[in-house]
Amino acid sequence: MNQKDTRKESLEFNKLQKRLRRNVGNAIIDYNMIEDNDVVMACMSGGKDSFAMLDILLSLQKVAPIKFDVIAVNLDQKQPGFPEHILPEYFESLDIPYYIVDKNTYSVVKEKIPEGKTTCGLCSRLRRGTLYSFAEKIGATKIALGHHLDDIVETLFLNMFHGARMKAMPPKLRSDDGRNVVIRPLAYCREKDLINYAEHKEFPIIPCNLCGSQENLQRQAIKTMLLEWDKKNSGRVESVFKSMQTVSPSQLADKDLFDFVNLPLDREGKREEYAFMEATVSSTNIDNSMFIDVTNI
């Protein structure tokens, strides 16, 4: 690679790095994810997303106007062939506090799930429970997960298509028992940016298929659908995410979110509105017949 190409690549990476840091910073501010004196437990799976999340949190920690601690935590689920040395060596190279939690959830999953069936659902529940409990032990006030914008949108469609529910992954969540707060600092980040970032940073990524489970075919189908949308209409995935931030309960159909049964009329307010419209039209050459006659209402 010549000097010109090297300079261009460096410039592109700087833009990418700034964009990701800006997106994470904005998500943290928008949802008040991290507060002064927080202890953030960064959950590290060994995948590209958790590596990027930790890297960006550590960089923001140095310049943030508030003080917060970051502790890296990996749950070793005793999957066959899991390279146990990689994450400890990486954390030590960063000189940051970390824990490796040993919990043989792999055996539990294999015992409960029939051969050939996907193990992801039970595995994630066991992992979540273990991490929630450990967060309390170390005094963590926030649990940071590496889910990104694509994950959130995929989950929305998964729940709509296969669960008949309109729900996804919120950027910030209080656990059901009320004892932990989960944050997703990568909520505004696209997966394609994280892939490029991980490749440039050369993170020691651990493959996620060590357990031998089948791929989550439903999620993969949604991912393929969204990729096609993105190719045909750039920005479509971001638009779906933004729609989750701009919800109009009265324009949906959930009776618990909006009282459709008792809808009071406000004819006086509408009378003034229609009268204003009629007066405006009267002063123009527009055909008045297209508007409601409010004089006899």
From TrEMBL:
Catalytic activity: cytidine(32) in tRNA + S-sulfanyl-L-cysteinyl-[cysteine desulfurase] + AH2 + ATP = 2-thiocytidine(32) in tRNA + L-cysteinyl-[cysteine desulfurase] + A + AMP + diphosphate + H(+)
Ranges spanned by the short sequence motif PP-loop motif, renumbered to the chain: 45-50
InterPro entries: Rossmann-like_a/b/a_fold (IPR014729), TilS/TtcA_N (IPR011063), tRNA_Cyd_32_2_STrfase (IPR012089), tRNA_thiolation_TtcA_Ctu1 (IPR035107)
GO molecular function per UniProt: transferase activity
Keywords associated with the record: 4Fe-4S, ATP-binding, Cytoplasm, Iron, Iron-sulfur, Magnesium, Metal-binding, Nucleotide-binding, RNA-binding, Transferase, tRNA processing, tRNA-binding
Cofactor(s) needed: [4Fe-4S] cluster; Mg(2+)
E.C. no: 2.8.1.-
Enzyme category, top tier: transferase
PANTHER family: AMINOTRAN_5 DOMAIN-CONTAINING PROTEIN, SULFURTRANSFERASE-RELATED
More details: The thiolation reaction likely consists of two steps: a first activation step by ATP to form an adenylated intermediate of the target base of tRNA, and a second nucleophilic substitution step of the sulfur (S) atom supplied by the hydrosulfide attached to the Fe-S cluster.
NCBIfam families referenced in this protein's UniProt entry, alphabetically: PRK10696.1 (NF007972)
Assigned protein family: Belongs to the TtcA family.
Record function comment: Catalyzes the ATP-dependent 2-thiolation of cytidine in position 32 of tRNA, to form 2-thiocytidine (s(2)C32). The sulfur atoms are provided by the cysteine/cysteine desulfurase (IscS) system.
Name listed for the protein in its UniProt record: tRNA-cytidine(32) 2-sulfurtransferase
